[in-house]
Design goal:
This protein is α/β, with parallel strands linked by helices. It contains five helices and six strands.
């Protein structure tokens, strides 16, 4: 494990050398970082990490994005996720897997009251419609690993929430 300073990421290029696969789940919130900070973390840092990984020999990049990601969205969150998907694809990995999970079900250390309320509601909804609106983070992690272990069908593969559930089954 290597700790890097994302503000000076290029100085840490050695940390990205010699890896066949790269996994990226980097992200923050607009509430935590402000709009500019959110863009810097969720788009710029991710794109720079992908570029360094590719330069270091990475062949398969696995990116956690978001359900509804769209570079033309009016919503900053979804627009940035769509933009970073395009930037990562443009890096030119031999294989790129993009996961678009719905609301992530997890326990967080910091307080996010609105997200907590949504998780409580979606936890109940998930019992009736298990793949529609949410996904446990453990399922996403298993799907990310499974995507690497199975042969790729296409150069770029986008997995929506239902496919993440299927691939991430325990």
């Amino acid at each position: 494990q290597v700790v890097v300073d994302f503000e000076r990421l290029s100085e840490h290029a050695a940390a990205f050398q010699g890896h066949d696969v790269g996994f990226c789940c980097l992200g923050t919130t607009r509430a935590k970082a402000g709009a500019a900070g959110f863009v810097r973390v969720d788009r710029d840092y991710v794109a720079q990490s992908a570029e360094l990984a590719r330069a270091g020999g990475c062949k398969h990049f696995v990116l956690q994005s978001s359900q509804g990601a769209n570079q033309h969205s009016l919503f900053l969150y979804l627009r940035v996720k769509g933009e970073v998907e395009n930037l990562v694809q443009a890096v030119g990995f031999d294989r790129c897997t993009i996961l678009r999970p719905a609301v992530l079900l997890c326990k967080r250390q910091e307080s996010r009251p609105a997200e907590w309320m949504a998780q409580q509601f979606l936890g109940v909804v998930a019992r009736v419609f298990p793949t529609a609106y949410s996904v446990p983070v453990e399922t996403v992690a298993r799907a990310m690993v499974a995507s690497v272990l199975q042969p790729g069908v296409e150069k770029v593969e986008v997995l929506e929430n239902e496919a993440i559930h299927e691939l991430g089954k325990a």
